[in-house]
Every structure is written in C-alpha cells, then in structure tokens.
C-alpha cells in the first residue's frame, strides 16, 4: 500500500479496531453508559468512514451505508432491542443491494447450494433458536445478505466468510434466548465474531474495488 494511503486511510481501520477492542474489554466496566455505547458504535462507524474515503464508487457508498446502519444498530441495541433489530434489518437490505449489483457470473453447484442454504435455513434457525416469529422474519434479511455475499463477485474467503460469521454471531445471540441462555462463553464470542465479520466484509469489498481501479489506470 502506498505511503500516502497508509497515512490517509489506515488510521480509520486502527480507530475501528481500537473501539472494538475497548468495547469488548470495558463492556462490564462501571464506566458504562454513553461512552460504552459510543465505543460499540465506533467499530462499524469508522469502517464506514474508511469505505467512503477509500473509494468513490456507488458500490463503496452502499457499503458505507450498510456499515453506518450497523453502527447505529449496535448502539440502539444497548437501549432498545427492537429498534436495533430494525436498523440491522435495514442494513442487511443495503448489503443485499450491494451484492446484487455485483453478482458472480458463474457459480459452481456447491456455491449455489451454500447460497441457497444460507437464504432458506437462516430464518428457520433464527426462529427455532429464539422461539420468536419476528426474529425469524429478521432472519430472512440476514440470510439474504449472507447468500448475496457468497454469490457475489467479491472474494468468498473474505466477504463471503464475513457474512457467514455475521450469521453465526446472530445465532449465538438468539441461542442465548433459548438453549444457551446464561452461557457465558456464547456471550463472550458474539462480539469478536461479529466485529471480525464486519472487518472482513469492509476490507474485502474495498480491496476488490481498489484493485479494479488500480488495474484500470495502468
């Protein structure tokens, strides 16, 4: 990466990582309150800024919108679960728009099978784990986002994997409402899996767009 890019863009990734780590280690600290909510939202908020500054395309703007909605959802969840869920639903729709704009032309049968499984099974598992129909409906958007990511032209072992990790993190949350209620390990795993997912999605999409831009200017 050129020195100028390091100076102008890496700080946003570092700030995102710093917020995510600080939230993870301070979330049970008495400091709590507004500062903790802002730290939680900062993880995706700085990724959104990174996306906006790193590429000027419509795809980058869709990515930034997705990440900004996720940041708002992360903060809202600390105050009102239903509002946070609604914002995540909107975020998944933004991500689906991005991935549908970038569909992979050729998919092998195994890739089609996994994408279809993510689309169909995610809402069913969300409903079974939580026992709540509204969370099953949320799972439709979650599964659509993950299926779209896996079937997109973006790298599957970065963007696709990130989307699947997002699904896993939500499964752990919903399992905490039922079979894993009170399980401390499951609670601890949610945030690192979720944030790693967002980091992979953001950097995977931007790396692809940047690579294409650099190739076109050679």
What's the SSE blueprint?
Layout: H1 3-26, H2 33-54, H3 58-77, H4 81-101, H5 109-130, H6 133-150, H7 156-175, H8 184-216
Helix pairs in contact: 1-2, 2-3, 2-8, 3-4, 3-8, 4-6, 5-6, 5-7, 6-7, 7-8
Overall outline: globular
Q: Could you give the distance between the termini? A: 16 Å
How many beta-strand runs?
A: 0
Determine the fraction of residues in helical runs and give it as a percent range.
over 70%
> Low-confidence parts lasting 5 or more residues at pLDDT below 50?
none
Biggest sheet overview: none
What structural class do helix, strand and pairing data support? mainly alpha
Walk me through the structure.
The radius of gyration is 17 Å and the shape is globular. The chain has one domain. The two termini are 16 Å apart. The chain is built from eight helices and no strands. It is an all-alpha fold and 218 residues long.
